[in-house]
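Support request, please re-run this one:
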Amino acid sequence: MLDNLTANAINAFLPNLTYTLPWVGEYDFTKIVSAGLVFVTLTVLFWFVRTVFLIRAKALAQKTTGTFDDALVEAVENIKAWVYTVVALFAALQFFTLPETIDLIVKGIFYFVIVWQAIAIATCFIDYFVQRYLEKDEDGDGIVDPGSATASNMVTLIARIVMWVLGIIFVLSNLGIEVTSLIAGLGVGGIAVAFALQGVLGDLFASFSLYFDKPFRIGDFIVIGEDSGTVEKIGVKTTRIRTLQGEELVVSNTELTTARVQNFKKMDERRIVSQFGITYETAQEKVQQVPEIVKNIFEGIEGARLDRVHFTTFADSALIFELVYHVETADYAEYLDKQQTFNFELMRILAEKGVEFAYPTQTIYTKTVS
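Re-run finished. Output below.
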């Protein structure tokens, strides 16, 4: 940490510290004093950073509206006190010529501590950017969307793995270990692992696609082919869907990114096309009253509006009326409630007017020939 030029400058600054000791003889205390001065100076400097500078920085960060300075203060605050001691001790030991094995162990411990602490600091900033740009409250209810939380956790995990791999390579390189062959081996091994786990990796990247594209979120009711249900969890490899029958449907994320998905949660309102038929025996004036009856019924149903109603078809056994109406909700149960209300009212009013609903019938006329 201290080069020879710096160490020599510190030694030259000190007076002659060679003394004669009993049973030892002459001994130069310059290196010991220099090491002690460096250790004490760095310890005091680090103490100042932790107690004075950090407190002032925290007070200033609380006065600002931004959050990045808070993340910066948190990163500095997360530096452990013993890490400062390790750095000061390592700097002090640079004045001495240690045995090769001990020197290698000291450097290994120092570089590992530095890498570990650097990753901890970098993680603070990663968490900050993840929370700011990935973990979002999509619904405005004060709760982070679970899908966003899953994506942010994956990003953080992948970032940590990459940082640790680079950190270990850095430590080995600084200890004089040849890492070129190691990097080449990791590259070949990575390709082999990628081929072996291409299905898993495909689902992993598909989960990122589901998050960023957002075709659906947790709590949405979706239809995939012949299956339908409510999304309960969007995982790293699979998505869990609770079907209407109650069982859990597990679908791979890759399948979801390639299939056609209907998302009923995105629907603001429902458009319903329906038909009903009345008998041919109904008088014409009563047939002409039916569209007005339907309109009056929908005027009394809150949250539903009639688009059109017409007498459309002379069917085999009925006079067919077609109506189109909108229900101003995406909730399926509410839609059924309003449809049921309309059906009950239509039955009641037509019964009062003596109009019967039609059903498949056949009328047979017979003729007697003498």
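The first strand starts at residue 18 and ends at 21. Strands lie at 18-21, 25-28, 221-224, 227-234, 238-243, 248-252, 261-263, 270-278, 304-314, 319-327.
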